[in-house]
Amino acid sequence: MTLMDRVFGSSTNNHKGSAIVAKERLQILVAHDRAERNRPPYLSRLQKDILDVVRKYVNVDPNAIQVTYEQDEHREILELNITLPDSTHPITR
Amino acid sequence: MARIIVITSGKGGVGKTTTSAAISMGLALRGRRTAVIDFDVGLRNLDLIMGCERRVVYDFINVINDEANLNQALIKDKRCENLFILPASQTREKSSLTKEGVGRVIEELSRSFDYVICDSPAGIEHGAMMAMYYADDAIIVANPEVSSVRDSDRMLGILSSKSRRAETSAAPIREYLLITRYDADRVQKTEMLSVEDVKGILSIELLGVVPESKSVLAASNAGTPVVLDKDSDAGQAYIDVVKRYLGERVPHRFLNTPRKGIFGRLFGE
Is a pLDDT exceeding 50 seen at residue B269? Predict the structure, then answer.
C-alpha cells in the first residue's frame, strides 16, 4: 500500500478483496443447494421409468433424456427433454 | 404456553452456546420466565458458560428417563430469578434423547415458562435434530465466513422440512439470522463478507450483529453471560438482539468502524 493509498483510503485502491470472491462462490453454491433440495425425491425414478417407456418405441440413448424441475411461487414445472436419434427406427414388435 | 426457540448453526464454534446464554439471560432480565436447555449430550458446556457447572446434580436425560423430576434438574440462576438451566448429560448416549422424551420435557416446561431456549449441538446429527424439532422460532448463528454461511443455509432447509411444524403442516418456524464475530474493519477492506452479503445469500430476517470482541472470551472465562457486561460492545449487541426479538425497533449497531483520522491512516495497521 503506497503512502497515497494510506492517505486517501480505499478510493484509490483497486484491490479486489477476497470477500467478493467469497460472496460470488456462496451465491452459486447456495442457489445450487436450494434447487437440489427442492427437487422431489422421485425424480430419478421417474426419469428411469420414462426412459424405459420411450425405449420401447424408439432406440434412444440413456443420456438423451433430461428431466428438469423448477419451482416458483405459483407453480412447479417438470420439463422433459428427449433427443431422438437422427434416423428413428421404430422398434417393430 | 412458552415459545420454543432453537439456537442453531450447523457449523461448530460460531457462538451458539454464547448466544444461548446471552439471549436467555437477556430475556430473563426483561422479566420473562426463561429455561435454557443444553442439547449437547456428552459435550456439556452451557453450564460452564452460565457459571453453574458446580451445581449440576441431575440432567436433561435423567428427566427424560424419569430418574429425576424437572424441579430437581433445573438449576436456578443466582443472578436472575427468572432464569433456569437444564444441563445436558455428560455420560449418556445421544440416543437417550428420544423425540417423545424431549417432547414431554418441553411440554412440561411450556406450562410454567414464557420461553424455552434450546442450545443445539453442532452438526446435523440426532442431538441437533432434537434441539430444532419442537421449535417455534429459530435463531441461526452465522459467522461471516463461507463454510458457516453454507451450513446455515443447510440448516434452514432442515428447519423447513424436518421440524414438527413442517411435519404437521403448521405455520413454519420463524427464522432469524444472528451474525457473530463480525469485524467491520475487515469488512470495509473487503476481507470479510458484509452483513448485506450474508443477509442477501440466506434471505432471512436479521436479528442482530455481534462484533468480534475480547469481552466474549472474558465472559466465558468468568462464567458470566456476556449480556451482563453492559459496557462491552458484544454485551450491548446482545441486549439489542433481545429487544428486537421482543418486538422493539432498535437500529443495528457495530456495522461500521469509526472513520480513522489522517494520522490513524498513516500510522495505523
Answer: no
Q: How many CA atoms lie within 13 A of B79 on its CB side?
A: 19
Pairwise CA distance, residues A60 & A51, whole Å: 8
| Chain B contact for A32 (CB, 8 A cutoff) | no
Per CB-CB distance under 8 Å, the chain A contacts of B150 are 26, 29-30, 33
Average pLDDT over residues B132-157: 97
The mean pLDDT value of chain B amounts to: 95
Residues B149, A27: C-beta atoms closer than 8 Å: no
Question: Rounded to a whole number, what is the distance in Å from the CA of B209 to chain A's nearest CA?
Answer: 18
> In degrees rounded to 5, what are phi and psi of residue A66?
-125, 130
Name the grid cell of A34: 436450494
- Is A9 in CB contact (< 8 Å) with chain B? yes
Nearest-angstrom CA–CA distance, B170 and B204:
19
Q: Nearest C-alpha of chain B: how many angstroms from A44? A: 20
Nearest to A26 among B150, B187, B189 (CB): B150
ipTM of the complex: 0.84
Model confidence at A55, pLDDT cuts 50, 70, 90, reads: confident
Query: How many CB atoms are located within 10 Å of the residue B161 CB?
Result: 11
Contact between B182 and B256 (Cβ < 8 Å): no
User: Is B188 in contact with A10 (Cβ distance < 8 A)?
Assistant: yes
Interval A30-47: pLDDT, tens: 998 888 887 777 887 888
Q: What is the distance between the alpha carbons of residues B11 and B205, in angstroms, rounded to a whole number?
A: 20
